[in-house]
Design brief:
Blueprint lengths: L24 E2 L3 H5 L1 H11 L3 E7 L2 E6 L2 H8 L10 H4 L9 H4 L10 H16 L6 H14 L6 E3 H18 L3 H15 L4 H21 L5 H6 L7 H15 L1 H16 L14 H11 L5 E5 L5 E3 L2 E3 L5 E4 H5 L29 H19 L4 E2 L21 E3 L9
Parallel strand pairs: 1-2, 3-8
Antiparallel strand pairs: 2-3, 4-10, 5-8, 6-7, 9-10
Helix pairs in contact: 7-8, 7-16, 8-13, 9-10, 10-12, 13-14, 13-16
Length: 416
């Protein structure tokens, strides 16, 4: 028998509800985006492992900031399923973040047998990726992009270099032609910028349906073909929703990881040289960013089927429980200050909904190659503004710069 959660007539049990812990913290705000780690420290002091938050104005959720608690939740899909259907029936349908969290028949928003089926098709399709060809794909696409700004002596790397390069390479990996990719890119940007669900789906759906039809008619050695030919027999509609997940996970997180790692390389003296004159490596910088400031900072959302007691706090049924990967990775109980061993942290999540094993090396290798190509051509790259002048995009889930302006000595274009 679980207590009811009402704000009037609180009982001794109900006072231990997350609803009574204190005011909700708006994790969607610009103030939070400007200093999330300061906010996490204050949360630990004021609330402990579970924090009442707003993931959008008027939309309550619980943020998990303790590592061991997060691991317990992420490995308990029976009590913490990822399917938002019950919550969505009572949630405001027009909130801008809905395209990021609404129910879709794919591997991230389902549970049980349905999830297992989608997960199998996804992991099997990704298993066929050829990482040996990734470096050449990055190089052949990076040089023409760098040539568009290398003579200028300045650039805004996020939109002039990282985004077009990451998207181009990912489309090649999936087997998505450029003309379809352009439409998907427009819809993906709208999704992460908080454009309404109807608009996002109106752009994304037809493009991904066209891609699915193309691969059914003209199969090739790529991720989408392996999905449409998989023995689970995904329908066209199911394919569209798997591809929405693939594009959401395969573009925005690598984009932010690369930009945030470049910022670390350009501002932290440890990556210029150490006491012995040997700078830390790009790979080390990527691992550090994943451990201390992952590109998806707060996500892995679950929805308890019934009220449940966690850390002596009652969480209500069908209300979002968000894992803060950034806060959990820097949990003082776990974090010794050593970021080189990246095996335990939650940047890729854990449990049955964790990032597929074959996607992880792809994301890391892609990020390293994108940065390598840039610094090989423009080794004297510097920030164009003071670090404190950079702005971070507000939003409850990502850790993302709005822009990354740099300067460098003008360089002649490279031969293709």
């Amino acid at each position: 028998m679980y207590p009811q959660h009402t704000h009037q007539g609180a009982t001794a049990d109900s006072k231990s509800s997350i609803e009574f812990k204190g005011p909700r913290i708006p994790i969607w705000s610009a103030d939070f985006a400007a200093d999330p780690h300061g906010a996490y420290r204050q949360m630990r002091s004021d609330y402990g492992p579970l924090v009442p938050v707003e993931m959008w104005p008027g939309v309550p959720a619980t943020l998990v900031i303790k590592y061991r608690t997060a691991v317990r939740i992420l490995n308990d899909p029976d009590h913490f399923p990822a399917d938002p259907s019950a919550w969505q029936r009572t949630a405001p349908a027009d909130i801008p973040i809905m395209p990021m969290i609404e129910y879709r028949p794919n591997a991230i928003r389902t549970s049980g047998a349905e999830h297992a089926r989608y997960r199998e098709s996804l992991t099997d399709a990704l298993a066929g990726m050829d990482l040996n060809s990734l470096r050449s794909m990055v190089a052949s696409s990076a040089i023409p992009i760098i040539n568009t700004f290398c003579r200028d002596g300045n650039a805004e790397l996020l939109n002039q270099y990282i985004l077009p390069l990451v998207f181009t390479v990912f489309c090649q990996t999936l087997g998505c032609p450029p003309e379809i990719g352009q439409e998907v890119a427009r819809a993906s940007a709208a999704m992460f910028d908080g454009v309404d669900t109807e608009t996002v789906n109106a752009i994304m759906g037809p493009a991904l349906l066209e891609l699915t039809a193309l691969k059914r008619a003209r199969p090739a050695n790529d991720v989408v073909t392996r999905m449409v030919q998989h023995h689970t027999g995904l329908s066209d509609e199911e394919m569209v929703h798997q591809l929405v997940l693939l594009f959401a996970a395969g573009v925005e997180p690598p984009l932010n990881l690369i930009a945030n790692t470049l910022l670390l390389l350009l501002t932290d003296p440890r990556y210029a040289s150490d006491d012995n004159g040997r700078p830390l490596t790009i790979k080390t910088a990527l691992e550090e960013r994943l451990a201390t400031d992952p590109p998806m900072a707060n996500y892995c959302i679950t929805y308890p089927r019934q009220p449940i007691l966690i850390e002596n706090v009652w969480l209500p049924a069908n209300q979002p429980v968000i894992i803060s990967m950034a806060a959990c990775n820097t949990d003082p109980e776990m974090n010794t200050g050593e970021f080189l061993d990246n095996g335990w942290n939650l940047a890729f999540s854990t449990g049955p909904h964790a990032c597929p094993a074959h996607a992880r090396p792809y994301g890391l290798l892609l990020a390293q190659d994108v940065i390598d190509q840039l610094l090989d051509v423009l080794p004297e790259l510097k920030l164009a503004v003071a670090e404190e002048e950079l702005e971070w995009r507000p939003g409850p889930f990502h850790r993302a710069l709005t822009a990354l302006p740099v300067v460098f000595p003008p360089s002649p274009p490279l031969d293709l």
